[in-house]
Amino acid sequence: MGDVEKSLLLVSRIQSILLSEGIDCALIGGYALIYNNVSRTTEDVDVGVFNADFYMRVYVHLKFLKAEGYKLTYHSPEDGDVLGGMLTITHEDIYPIEIVNLCPQPMYVGMPHAGRLSIKDPMIFDLDGHELMGL
Questions:
Q1: pLDDT tens per residue, range 3-28
Q2: Please, which of 3, 28, 78, 119 could form a disulfide with 48 given CB 3.0 to 4.6 Å?
Q3: Burial per residue of 5-39, b for 16 or more beta-carbon CB atoms within 10 angstroms, e otherwise
Q4: Is residue 32 over pLDDT 80?
Q5: Burial letters for 88-123: b for 16+ Cβ neighbours within 10 Å, e otherwise?
Q6: Alpha-carbon distance 47 to 56, whole Å?
Q7: C-alpha separations of 61 from 57, 58, 80, 90, 131 in Å
Q8: For 16-21, which contacts have Cβ atoms below 8 Å and span 24 or more sequence positions?
Q9: pLDDT digits (tens, 9 = 90+) for 66-93
Q10: Which domain covers residue 19, as residue numbers?
Q11: Cβ atoms within 10 A of the Cβ of 55, count?
């Protein structure tokens, strides 16, 4: 089982890297709810990004984590999936970190979907720009 503190420290590191590359990101999912005092059991940490070139930009900037012993697994969008793929980062010392591309696939552009992420460095914000967590 992973360590929450180590997981969130890695998320903070990932956020810094992505923000330095101009890629918006935010803590989403269970830990975002927990931070806002909503009781939630979760076994992973979810990070949302909004980037049309998800694989080329996000994966490329994080693949160095492999040299540190992390496993990176890219999941292409499934048929009918509005979202644009996911990158899972795993290691025995952390909870799985799932980086989810909230940018819709081209065939779904124009459909209602999550708005552009609002980020104010170095905090993590939700989709409406509310502060979720300062790491």
A1: 888 988 999 999 999 989 888 888 88
A2: 28
A3: eebbebbbebbebbeeeebbbbbbbbbbbbbeeee
A4: no
A5: ebbbeebbbbbbbbbbbbeebeeeeebeebebeeee
A6: 17
A7: 6, 5, 27, 16, 25
A8: 16/122, 17/61, 17/62, 18/49, 18/58, 18/61, 19/119, 19/121, 19/122, 21/57, 21/61
A9: 999 999 998 887 776 667 788 999 999 9
A10: 4-134
A11: 14
| Tokens representing residue 12 in the block | 């903070």
Angstrom distance (rounded) from CA 75 to CA 63: 14
128, pLDDT greater than 80: no
Number of domains in the chain: 1
Tokens read off for 70:
């992390």
Q: The CATH number of the domain where 32 resides is what?
A: 3.30.460
Q: Token match 């940490």: residue? A: 45
Residue at token pair 């999941």? 75
Dist. CA 79–CA 60, nearest whole Å: 24
Structure tokens belonging to residue 7: 């997981």
